């Protein structure tokens, strides 16, 4: 849960939050970014890495440069390429001469009701990290974990020296992750959650939005359970005769701000695609049905 400390955290100030880790909050709060994008600086010696540099805003870039100081930036790492995460990568690289290393590039035109930031067409990595590949600096090692689902190119980074995992938008303590087709994939998202749940070495998660997660496996188990509950709820909606997404959402999200219902509909769609793949539901003349039902 969020605390007053999280909500009132000062912008553009580097906070030391754990061994080898500092955090700088960008001033881009929204219903989908919480208090804003959190950029992480990893390392305390002569070389550091920057994770999720955030939006291309002068105030935020200046704060990052000040926090980096005289250290060499060994890598600018992006978990994925939504516009609240990666646009500052290129200008930061220009100012520090650092390579951009991390997720693959992805630009997707999507005219639907977006539930988060659109994709960043300016992201051009110098190197894409494969699943399990690592980058190193003085006293630190970051290992990439492919975690598709929120986006197909999403990557988490494990700081092996401390047991910290930088989870981007894949796992957050304040909210569930948006999974919005066509690129968002619920099947892949659930597989990626299971992948993290099986990692017993991670002791804390540092998401791109919201407070750190100190009970990571417990949270992930609950998130998997939440998604399974949602799919059962969807199947009950179909059984009750609500066969279109627009009819399901008002009943499934009664306590949610109506402005977020279009985004919720994208999540329902992602679940339905997953259920269709598993042979549990199918689309018939713009209406969803359950196999075996009349």
UniProtKB/TrEMBL annotation:
SMART domains: Lactamase_B. Residues 36-209 form the Metallo-beta-lactamase domain. Signal peptide: none annotated. SUPFAM superfamilies: Metallo-hydrolase/oxidoreductase (SSF56281). Gene3D superfamilies: Ribonuclease Z/Hydroxyacylglutathione hydrolase-like, Winged helix-like DNA-binding domain superfamily/Winged helix DNA-binding domain. InterPro entries: LACTB2_WH, Metallo-B-lactamas, RibonucZ/Hydroxyglut_hydro, Sec-metab_biosynth-thioest, WH-like_DNA-bd_sf. It comes from the Bacteria. PANTHER family: ENDORIBONUCLEASE LACTB2. This is MBL fold metallo-hydrolase. It comes from Novosphingobium mangrovi.
């Amino acid at each position: 849960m969020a605390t007053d400390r999280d909500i009132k955290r000062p912008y553009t100030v580097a906070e030391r939050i754990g061994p080898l880790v500092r955090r700088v909050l960008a001033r881009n709060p929204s219903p989908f970014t919480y208090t804003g994008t959190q950029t992480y600086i990893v390392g305390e010696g002569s070389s550091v890495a920057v994770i999720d540099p955030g939006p291309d805003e002068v105030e935020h870039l200046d704060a990052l440069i000040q926090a980096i100081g005289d250290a060499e930036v060994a890598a600018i790492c992006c978990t994925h390429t939504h516009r609240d995460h990666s646009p500052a990568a290129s200008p930061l690289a220009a100012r520090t001469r650092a390579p951009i290393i991390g997720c693959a590039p992805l630009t997707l035109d999507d005219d639907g009701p977006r539930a988060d930031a659109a994709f960043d067409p300016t992201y051009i990595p110098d190197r894409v990290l494969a699943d399990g590949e690592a980058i190193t600096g003085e006293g630190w090692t970051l290992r990439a974990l492919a975690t598709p689902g929120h986006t197909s190119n999403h990557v988490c980074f494990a700081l092996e020296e401390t047991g910290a995992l930088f989870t981007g938008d894949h796992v957050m303590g304040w909210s569930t992750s948006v999974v919005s087709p066509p690129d968002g994939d619920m099947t892949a998202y659930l597989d990626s959650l299971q992948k993290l749940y099986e990692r017993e070495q991670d002791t804390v998660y540092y998401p791109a939005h919201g407070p750190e997660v100190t009970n990571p496996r417990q949270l992930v188990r609950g998130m998997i359970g939440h998604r399974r509950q949602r799919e059962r709820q969807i199947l009950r909606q179909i059984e009750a005769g609500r066969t279109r997404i627009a009819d399901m959402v008002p009943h499934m999200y009664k306590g949610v701000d109506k402005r977020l219902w279009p985004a919720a509909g994208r999540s329902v769609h992602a679940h339905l695609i997953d259920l269709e793949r598993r042979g549990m539901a199918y689309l018939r003349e713009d209406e969803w049905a359950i196999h075996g039902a009349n």
